[in-house]
Amino acid sequence: MAARSQRPVNVGRLFHWAAEQGRPTVMHLDRPFDIAPDSGTRFDVPALAATVEDAAGWLYGAGLRHGDRLAIVKENHYDFILLAAAAARLGALPVMIAPIRSEAHIRTLLTRISPKVLVMGTTVLERMTAAGVALDDPGMTLVAVGEDRPGLPGGTLRIDDVRGGARPPVRFRGPHEPMLVTHTSGTTGVPKLVVHSPATTLAAVPFRIESYRLPLMTSRPQDVVASGISFAHNRNLSWTNGTLFRGPRKMVILSDPGLENVARMLAAHPPTSLEACPNVFQYWEELADTRPELFAGVRRFISTFDAVHPRTVRKFLGASRVRLPLWAWGVGQSEIAGIAAGVATRSMVRPGKPRAHDATNVGFPPLVRVKVVDPETGRKRPRGKPGLLMVRTKSRCLTYLGEDDRHRAKDQGRWWNTGDLGEYAGYGRIRLIDREVDMIPGMSSIELESTLLDRLDRASEVIVLGVPGQPPIPVLCMRDDALDPQEWDRACRGLPEMDKPRLVPWDEMPRTATWKVRRGELREQLLGSSDTYGTGQWT
């Protein structure tokens, strides 16, 4: 048995290490893996390690070798990280790309990657083919995974076509060499490809914090830990590391955030810990209203990637029947991990609390250093004065793949320019205001949107767009796609002047792979304009 002190820092070792340690966790899937469609929906840790081993074999059979790049573009599922682990065992560099909406953006990313092997989900491949986007790069092998689809491009291989060869050699790359590439959310255009090493991920404390024993905050042996995030992102790596290390009873994978699917899985596997992206939790508020029993045993809710609104936190904490449920939230970037994090209880999000001191947008830097600076002079700002958030951390990425110049423009010595606006809030805390590109002078769209959500019970999404030369424009998703004028008048009482609201159905709202709203695309869609108050130079 491996020594317990030898904590893995390479994703290629992670599942094998957990199997050697005898971790008792069993993973339950909402659908079979795309790379193992006949293996069912129940995997213990040795089975996960075996799936990684099998994937390494067929990737090697497809021609992937040490130093090559593997592009993974497929439907959302946990097997993103299994493929990344398989490639890392070969010493190849895996690049994980979620099934983003724009086929042109996917093509641009593939050009930057120049992969030796491309693993693409059949539904994404069908979209690319229908859009006339070619995937015939010289020297690239295309392997399709997922359900069969008609009209796959000529030369496309399936897993069985590249399986059955010689057992590949295991050749890990060094601790400071590139190990894994994920992409940014892409709220403002083509996502950036973020390159990380073992030293900037699993060896860095921010990625390991969940493996420590923290009262009320980390998993216990009897826990059922469910996750409904975008599994193509770095959060999947830190979540997997912490969860496998703590060894809860179950891991529950929610690859599809649809209400019916989530209700089915949570009823079958009642969670004690539940994680999702903030906008997904907003969407699930309907379940909290209609099926509160699904969340009765949850003692820890976790939201990552973006700011979360108080109404959302309040609803889910109210649905839990445990004595002291907690909401843990974090805001970060793929490039650096966390920026600010906090914990909320029922009393901290009770109605009527001042937005400027809200527990869901005022938090502490999570094991990183943060300073607030004037965007023009770079000088440190005093408490209560907004500025750009600069972060210093050992988990900062190595570069942007294919865009080194863009990375250098945000790398200011020991500090990283996040492009986010915030201010000091006292006692070491940071108050989040907005992305710089989305700023509205004199206000915070985060706080304005939170207020409107509190006052509009049937709203599942509220976005406020700043447009130079006119009042801010509110964009609403209503559960029944209707808004009574009197209801809107009551919601606006005492708030800054806004333009008339625009209604957009939830499924027509342009979103990133992490379900954030692509505000720039929404602005173009509704207004035919890209004008903003922000410069966007740090996006």
What's this entry about, in short?
Residues 38-400 form the AMP-dependent synthetase/ligase domain. With 539 residues, the chain is α/β, with parallel strands linked by helices.
Describe this structure in words.
The protein is of the alpha/beta class and 539 residues long. It contains 14 helices and 25 strands. The strands form 4 sheets. Strands 2-1-11-10-12-13-14-15 form an 8-stranded mixed sheet, sandwiched between helices. An 8-stranded mixed sheet has the order 7-6-5-3-4-8-9-19, sandwiched between helices. Helix 7 (234-246) links the parallel strand 10 and strand 11 (250-253). The radius of gyration is 23 Å and the shape is globular. The model is unreliable at 1-5 (pLDDT under 50).
Write the layout of secondary structure elements.
Blueprint: H1 11-20, E1 26-29, E2 42-44, H2 45-61, E3 69-73, H3 79-90, E4 93-97, H4 103-113, E5 117-121, H5 122-130, E6 141-145, E7 157-158, E8 180-183, E9 193-196, H6 205-208, E10 224-228, H7 234-246, E11 250-253, H8 259-268, E12 273-276, H9 278-290, E13 300-303, H10 310-319, E14 326-333, E15 337-344, E16 362-363, E17 369-373, E18 387-392, E19 399-400, H11 404-410, E20 411-412, E21 415-426, E22 429-435, H12 445-455, E23 459-465, E24 473-478, H13 485-492, E25 502-503, H14 519-527
Parallel strand pairs: 1-11, 3-4, 3-5, 4-8, 5-6, 6-7, 10-11, 10-12, 12-13, 13-14, 24-25
Antiparallel strand pairs: 1-2, 8-9, 9-19, 14-15, 16-22, 17-18, 18-21, 20-21, 21-22, 23-24
Helix pairs in contact: 1-2, 1-3, 1-7, 2-3, 9-10
